């Protein structure tokens, strides 16, 4: 993640905490089982945000170093850790481009949860090769692919209203150029490449598992969730934010007067090891 990314997410930290769903327990239990985590390991959470992965991960390791370029995200993470009684996390302002300058030490694993697509992935993995101990691993957790994503088979009908409002208010579809020299691509395209990028790195032995789950929304939680998406954070929408929210509320109530929305989600976990 870069400082440009940090500015894009400025003002979004509170929305993240309130409206982004926590990962299911099965995600971290699955990681722990596959890596043999027993409370003695040292972990890096790169692009940690407000600690969505940091805090559950802390229950399986001795220490987590959580790195993010956005100070407000780190502040929320510290607050939530204090409220939860988690005292084994070190919060560090920084990003993937400066890992070697942060003096973080060695790790048994690095986790990138809904953040890998923002990075120059080959360069980041090369840097991690110098930080991860010989028997360690890199873990990539996809952004929980929600029912609003176009490539989800069980996409709910209300998602069409979300997409239509986004297309009215957001004049372009965000594309990523994290990897050096790459063309701009959509998030779905970049996400599908994660396995290949890992396979071409030092962490080329890749295994994966998937967790399917779901959550219920009301109108306000769906509107708030949009404030966490890169194209529609308060910083990205600026003066258009209020109009966007009002338009989306009206469309959601029109399509589902009950105000109850069920979102199917699938989370994929990729684990890369050297041998």
UniProtKB/TrEMBL annotation:
Recorded GO MF terms: methyltransferase activity
Keyword Methyltransferase: yes
Tagged with keyword Methyltransferase: yes
Keyword field: Methyltransferase, Transferase
SUPFAM superfamilies: S-adenosyl-L-methionine-dependent methyltransferases
Domain Methyltransferase positions: 44-131
InterPro entries hit by this protein: Diverse_substrate_MTase (IPR051052), Methyltransf_25 (IPR041698), SAM-dependent_MTases_sf (IPR029063)
Protein name, as recorded: Methyltransferase family protein
GO BP: any one term: methylation
């Amino acid at each position: 993640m870069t400082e440009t990314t940090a500015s894009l997410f400025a003002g979004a930290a509170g929305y993240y905490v309130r409206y982004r769903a926590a990962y299911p327990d099965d995600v971290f239990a699955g990681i722990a089982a596959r890596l043999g985590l027993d409370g003695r390991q040292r972990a890096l959470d790169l692009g940690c945000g407000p600690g969505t992965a940091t805090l559950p991960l802390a229950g399986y390791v001795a220490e987590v170093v959580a790195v993010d370029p956005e100070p407000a995200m780190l502040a929320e993470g510290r607050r939530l850790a204090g409220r939860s009684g988690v005292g084994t996390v070190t919060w560090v302002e920084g990003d993937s481009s400066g890992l070697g300058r942060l003096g973080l030490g060695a790790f048994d694993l690095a986790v990138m949860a809904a953040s890998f697509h923002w990075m120059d992935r080959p360069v980041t993995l090369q840097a991690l090769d110098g930080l991860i101990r010989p028997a360690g691993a890199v873990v990539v957790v996809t952004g929980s692919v929600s029912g609003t994503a176009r490539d989800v088979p069980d996409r709910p009908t209300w998602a069409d209203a979300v997409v239509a409002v986004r297309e009215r208010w957001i004049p372009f579809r965000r594309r990523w150029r994290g990897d050096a020299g790459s063309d701009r691509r959509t998030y779905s395209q970049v996400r599908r490449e994660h396995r290949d990028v890992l396979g071409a790195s030092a962490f080329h032995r890749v295994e994966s598992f998937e967790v399917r789950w779901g959550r219920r929304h009301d109108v306000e939680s769906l509107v708030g969730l949009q404030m966490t998406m890169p194209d529609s954070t308060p910083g990205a929408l600026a003066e258009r934010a209020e109009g966007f929210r009002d338009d989306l509320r009206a469309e959601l109530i029109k399509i589902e007067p009950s105000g109850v929305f069920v979102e199917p989600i699938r989370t994929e976990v990729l684990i890369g090891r050297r041998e």
